[in-house]
Design brief:
The complex is a heterodimer of chains A (about 190) and B (about 650).
Chain A: H1 2-9, H2 27-39, E1 50-56, H3 61-77, E2 81-87, H4 94-99, E3 105-108, H5 116-125, E4 129-132, E5 144-149, E6 152-158, H6 159-164, H7 171-175, E7 177-180, H8 186-190
Parallel strand pairs in A: 1-2, 1-3, 3-4, 4-5, 6-7
Antiparallel strand pairs in A: 5-6
Chain B: H1 2-22, H2 34-40, E1 42-43, E2 51-52, E3 60-64, H3 65-71, H4 76-80, E4 86-90, E5 95-99, E6 112-116, E7 119-120, E8 142-149, H5 153-156, E9 163-169, E10 177-183, E11 187-199, E12 202-212, E13 218-219, E14 232-233, E15 239-250, E16 253-265, E17 280-297, E18 300-319, E19 322-344, E20 347-367, E21 370-375, E22 378-392, E23 395-406, E24 411-422, E25 427-438, H6 442-446, E26 463-477, E27 480-499, E28 506-526, E29 532-544, E30 547-548, E31 555-562, E32 569-578, E33 581-582, E34 588-589, E35 592-604, E36 607-614, E37 622-624, E38 633-635, E39 640-648
Parallel strand pairs in B: 6-9
Antiparallel strand pairs in B: 1-2, 3-8, 4-5, 6-7, 8-9, 10-11, 10-39, 11-12, 12-15, 13-14, 15-16, 16-17, 17-18, 18-19, 19-20, 20-21, 20-22, 22-23, 23-24, 24-25, 25-26, 26-27, 27-28, 28-29, 29-30, 29-31, 31-32, 32-35, 33-34, 35-36, 36-39, 37-38
The chains are: A alpha/beta (about 190), B mainly beta (about 650).
Chain lengths: ~190, ~650
């Protein structure tokens, strides 16, 4: 039985970060929810138009479609949001690309081969808010995400990441959110 | 007349609910475009990493928790009955799946792979898994069921011949719930799911479920003699189970423990045992599984799964004044290591290795003081690789290869290939090829019965299957999705008992050849106010050695309509028609139409009362018996009612 226990316990040594399910929340619903979330962020001024850079990969279909759906939702949504698609096809040049982007928010689509910490680094240095629906990205340092739980969208907040980006979230929002603390990437910000 | 009134009342109730739904307020944003939500659902069964339904290189049906709740489905078989091309055969012991015209009662579903969160659930003796109450997994604990048609051996090895069915558990953050219920045949059921945050990023969930079902008294004309109670089996159809499952998850780790036991009375007189006497069997399962996922680098993920699985079967069958007993015992250790590497954003490669150590795999019989045991330990080692490449925005090419080495018999090599073309935003075309195999079971290799001149055959080879399929999925409107899937499959070396006319010796042999071709059509209509409906038609022509296949329905039509579970009143109606099937004795069973209905009402915000009526029209019908039964056809349940009270979601 000892060998059985060892075998069953073996993966514990390898585990670090979950690779979870990416959300299936429609883009229009995402936008509505994120817009409401910003109403509970004291650092966002109510009447300001928000410039949202959508970070995606043009060679990865799921990423590009997520961008297309979001752009379309912004176009038809009537919200005070302007969308700027930003292709991150060169995974080795993410920081340089993002340094040049003028935006209030980075919307991070699911991408392959991109180090999310590069996005986190720029967002914190330039106080740009980060949002996503991609699985595992909030744990990886993105500030606010949406997930599906019991067929309903729920808000996930990486509190230290949000603070590092300059967000000032109200207690009301945090009460209805799932909070993730001490995420990867927070050390890098404090450096 | 009372029956007519009952049906009329039921139909009126459901019609009222749909009228309420049709006049409902416009959609709330969270329920916007439910077809988008369905098509964007991420499933992991087809590639062993998550992909959107519309991107997966396979023909897929996803059954969500919402659909399970709407329709009041109690077992996996209930849920799969709605899937195009699926037929069910219940021999009042186990429920057997058939897909695309091929479904063999008595095969214990060993030509399907059923997974629990990616963990194979088969036993090592017969490759068996039940889709009825012996499954041991409560449907209310599932986030969704992923049904992936076609050969899946490249990723899942032996047994993944017709489909891979993955039962995906709800996360540990989903709310707790309790359900109690009762219904026809003095049935009582209960289940509960509880969650708790342990701190430190870990959460726990515990799910328990039970059923006591007295069953029916059944008449079998084959036993219509005074010595066998004039063919009436009294009190032998009971079906009782208990199941307990716990998970702990956090930081990329998930530990799962499952124990279940199910005792089923046998009303049919299996294996020639004495009819209407105390005969029953018990299936028990214990499963421990641990999975870990680790992001090694931005381009590299590692996945490790280990499990310990034990499955025991005990049967008792009276023969006159003697009690015959049989027992199968399977203990498996399973480990899989998988590396997913993103060579480029548009090129993902998966490498995997799997080892299954069947430490114990034996089947024994005892009768009149004689004992006989077959089987023993064996192991299977496998390596596989799969590539998903997107040469352009609209095109995805998946190729894969797996090598399995089976200690006792042989090695097999299985390829797969798929091209997924997103023609435009509304249309997707999939061209699929796959192959799969099934290793001969302990039972098939070693079964011996001198009294029946039945000899073992250690020279059996694996069964093999190849399938070609084209799937077109078209979004006609934002609310309507249509899919058409023509297919052709060829199975060689089907393992069946064969009797040599010259010697009279019977053995399992690889002689038969099965070909099936057909087409599956399905349309989904999902409105943003929660009204969902579907309709499907399957035409399937399955032939064994050129002759019409046993237990194969040529035409299947299914339809369903349901309203959301969130409003105060809710309803669902499903209808299945299947054309006739042929029995083992070459008799034709006529076609049958069945209807099921569920209505529910929220008594309070978290308290819901539901009533599910299966076989609403009280249709009398039967399905073919298998080799274990003397009966050529097995009667199925008439109308049954189940009332449930659920607290929580």
């Amino acid at each position: 039985m000892t060998s059985v226990a060892l075998l069953v316990m073996a993966p514990a040594a390898a585990a670090h970060a979950a690779i979870e399910q990416t959300s299936a929340i429609p883009a229009s619903v995402q936008l509505l929810l994120f817009s409401k979330i910003w109403m509970f962020d004291r650092s966002v001024h109510e009447n300001d138009q928000i410039v949202m850079a959508v970070l995606y990969q043009s060679t990865f279909r799921a990423s590009e479609e997520a961008k297309d759906q979001l752009v379309e939702a912004v176009r038809t949504g009537g919200l005070k949001i302007r969308c700027v698609p930003v292709a991150l096809d060169d995974a080795g040049n993410v920081v340089n690309t993002l340094e040049l982007v003028k935006a209030d928010v980075f919307y991070v689509t699911e991408m392959r081969g991109v180090n999310i910490l590069d996005v986190v680094h720029v967002s914190r240095a330039r106080h740009i808010k980060t949002i996503t629906v991609a699985a595992g990205y909030v744990e990886g340092g993105i500030a606010i995400g949406l997930r599906v739980r019991n067929d309903k969208p729920v808000i996930v907040v990486n509190l230290s990441a949000a603070k590092a980006e300059g967000s000032d979230l109200t207690g009301q929002l945090l009460q209805v959110s799932t909070i993730i603390e001490g995420s990867p990437g927070s050390n890098r910000t404090s450096q | 007349m009372p029956q007519f009134r009952f049906v009329l009342a039921a139909v009126c109730a459901v019609a009222s609910l749909f009228c309420v739904a049709l006049m409902a307020q416009p959609a709330t944003p969270a329920e916007d475009l439910p077809l988008d939500a369905l098509l964007n659902t991420r499933i992991s069964t087809a590639a062993k990493y998550e992909q959107r339904v519309t991107d997966v290189p396979a023909s897929v049906t996803v059954i969500t928790a919402e659909e399970i709740a709407r329709n009041g489905w109690h077992t996996l078989a209930d849920a799969l009955a709605s899937v195009p091309g699926v037929t069910l055969t219940y021999d009042r012991g186990y429920t057997y799946l058939g897909v695309r015209g091929v479904g063999l009662p008595g095969d214990y579903n060993n030509r399907f792979q059923i997974l629990l969160n990616g963990q194979p659930m088969l036993d090592g003796v017969a490759g068996a898994i039940d889709t009825g109450t012996a499954l041991g997994v409560d449907l209310s604990s599932l986030a969704r069921i992923e049904f992936v048609r076609g050969p899946g051996s490249v990723l899942y090895g032996s047994g993944a011949m017709f489909a891979v069915i993955n039962l995906v558990l709800k996360s540990e953050q989903e709310p707790s719930s309790v359900m109690v219920g009762g219904g026809s045949h003095h049935t009582t059921i209960a289940s509960g799911r509880f969650i708790h945050a342990l701190g430190g990023g870990f959460s726990v969930s515990i799910t328990g479920s039970m059923q006591n079902d007295h069953g029916q008294n059944l008449f079998f004309p084959e036993f219509n003699t005074p010595e066998t109670n004039n063919g009436l089996s009294v009190g032998h159809d009971y079906d009782n189970y208990r199941s307990l499952m716990g998970t702990v998850a956090g930081h990329g780790l998930r530990f799962l423990a499952l124990t279940s036991t199910r005792t089923k009375g046998v009303p049919t007189g299996w294996f020639g045992s004495t009819f209407n006497e105390q005969q029953q069997f018990t299936d028990g399962r214990s499963l421990l599984s641990l999975t870990a996922e680790h992001r090694v680098s931005p381009t590299s993920h590692l996945f490790l799964r280990t499990s310990y699985d034990r499955f025991d079967y005990h049967g008792q069958f009276p023969y006159g004044d003697q009690m015959g007993r049989d027992h199968s015992s399977s203990t498996r250790l399973n480990a899989e290591l998988r590396h997913v590497w993103d060579a480029k954003p548009n090129h993902r490669v998966t490498f995997g290795a799997e080892y299954v150590d069947n430490m114990r795999a034996s089947y024994s019989t005892s009768f009149a003081g004689f004992e006989h045991t077959i089987g023993g330990p064996f192991a299977v080692g496998s390596v596989y690789a799969q590539s998903e490449y997107q040469p352009s925005h609209s095109l995805s090419v998946t190729t894969g290869l797996r090598y399995d080495h089976y200690a006792h018999v042989t090695a097999t090599l299985n390829p797969r290939g798929a091209v997924v073309w997103h023609i435009d935003d509304a249309n997707t075309l999939k061209v699929l090829y796959g192959s799969a195999f099934r290793l001969p079971t302990v039972f098939e290799l070693g079964l011996e019965d001198a009294s029946q001149n039945f000899l073992p055959n250690q020279n059996l080879r694996p069964e093999k299957i190849r399938q070609y399929e084209v799937v077109w999925e078209g979004r006609l409107t934002p609310e309507v999705l249509v899919s058409i899937a023509p297919y052709r499959l060829h199975m060689t070396g089907l393992i069946n008992p064969q009797t040599d006319a010259a010697t009279g010796i019977t053995q399992f042999q690889n002689l038969n050849d099965v070909r099936s071709q057909g087409v599956e059509l399905r349309t989904d209509y999902r409105r943003s106010d929660g009204l969902w409906s579907y309709a499907s038609y399957s035409r399937q022509d399955a032939r064994e050695n050129g002759s019409e296949m046993f237990n194969s329905a040529a035409n299947l039509a299914k339809a369903g309509i349901s309203t959301a579970t969130s409003p105060r009143f809710q309803g669902a109606l499903e209808v299945v028609y299947e054309s006739g099937r042929e029995t083992l004795a070459d008799r034709d069973i006529p076609g049958v139409m069945l209807a099921n209905m569920t209505i529910s009402a929220a008594l309070r915000s978290s308290l819901r009362l539901s009533v599910t009526v299966k076989n609403l029209l009280n249709t009398r019908y039967a399905t073919p018996g298998g080799p274990a039964q003397l009966e050529d056809t097995i009667p199925q349940n008439g109308r049954t009612v189940m009332v449930r009270l659920r607290i929580g979601s």
